[in-house]
Amino acid sequence: MARIPQLQMTGISLTFGGDPVFSDLDLVVQPGDRVALVGRNGSGKSTLMKVMAGLVEADAGTIVVPPGRSVGYMEQDPKMEGFATLGEFAASGLEPGEMYKVERAGEGLKFDPDRPVETASGGERRRAALAKLMAEAPDLMLLDEPTNHLDIEAIGWLEGELKATRTAYVLISHDRAFLRALTRATLWIDRGQVRRQEKGFEAFEEWRDKIWDDEDQQRHKLNRLIKSESRWAVEGISARRKRNMGRVRALHDLKAQRSSQIKRQGTAEFALDSAPKSGRKVIEAEGLTKAYGDKQIVRNFSLKVQRGDRIAFVGPNGTGKTTLLKMLLGQEAPDEGTVKLGTSLELALFDQARDQLNPDMSLWDNLTSDPEMGVSGKADQVMVRGNPKHVVGYLKEFLFDESQARAPVRSLSGGEKARLLLAKLMARQSNLLVLDEPTNDLDVETLDLLQELLDNYDGTVLLVSHDRDFLDRVATQTIAMEGNGQAVAYAGGWSDYQIQRAPDAAPAAEKDKVSKSSKPKQEAKPKAGLSFTEKHRLEALPGELERLEKEIGKLEQLMADPELFTREPVKFKKATEALVERQEKLAAAEEEWLELEEKAEAG
Known about the structure:
alpha/beta, Rossmann fold, 5 domains, six-stranded mixed sheet, globular
């Protein structure tokens, strides 16, 4: 017996006055489906979800929700006019006596149902909207970035609820670990086309890369055919004009086919140059203690941060991660203890609230103004690590169109605001990078690029994040804020931290990573073999070595020109500096690879 779908879309097309967001789309969501909806920022994921929810009307096509079936959508910016409290809003679609469902969801998602709407933050409003959806339990849930503004504990609760539910859902998220754990099928929006694979997100990247490889091969074959036919046209058309006009028309058709192909969106051209190196000792904190009334943030906490460290701060919201970070940076005084900052530090800060962006100013003015330096923002160029670049050209490197340059920042999506802040941040030189929730709203490809950038950054990184996969990829040390003033340092990223704090609960394959002794958890560090982060680094190093060798080869080839110094002295100087830098990085990477190989063999 055929199953009745929860939702069916047929021939859906939508444009916003330009290229189609999607055209002639057919889509079916069956009972029990657990679908990841993925695509680049701006590809139309949220728009498609709003069409599915009936909030955006398509230009053409039909949407059918069978009688008796319900579709629920988690609003990004919920409208709460007319409701006194978050709980009143969250319970508005429930039967009398079902408030307990909201209270249960509120406990798991960490929002207070009694919080007045007028004083609630954007994150609290989003959590209330998510609690409302979870309490209503429709037949199909449409979840757009549900993990934003959730701490790791709340993400774990939501993950458990979605694993246990029988409700179908479609899920947009940047959190790889969340998507891998929950999805069984994948919808991919790419250049107006929606593809479906009956495998979860775990298989997405391999599938995507295979499709792109096939496209590149077809494009290569088409270009070769056009080149061959064009040569024929030039050499022989005059002698065979009447007999071969069909072939000429075919050549025009081939060129039209190539022109009609939609080019894939590239990746943002991230680059993050370090300022002159800081001292080897970046931060030394001794005996830090801080409390606000009865709430203890940290007690007797000590930490040494060395140049090149990547330190992550994790823990539930409200445990004091940001406060501890401010103390370590000398921006807030501890009640007890001391903090010594190293020499020659140049700080760059990526803040979660995007406060460095003025929402009423244009992208252009945000990039070219600097209130601290008294710069007004009226220039045509932006200084990028000491070199002038035209504003529009620099924005294009971060995937913004020229038409967006004069638009106000408030018109941007969350992912676009994150990219703009990265552009502003990366225009500066720095040797100490502080990232407060940098992964929110970024697509998978941009997250990969950000991770690669941090791998190659010569300075020191302090990171606050709830993205478990990103923590595993980046962090070399994790500071866990465990409540009641306990801040404990663990080697490695999120997975390493989980193993070390509860080795008995770890899978058998992972228990070998940690000591089996009964010493306290602060000392239960890996004795042999590689941590998760080290394994990832060892796998990445061969590619990095190959890239550095290629760059060195290109620079050496450039400098082999005996006239370069006389003809272009500035270019010669930059090439010389770049060559020395690449050679130093190559030597360091080779040494790191040897050390990790030896450690792996010893383990």
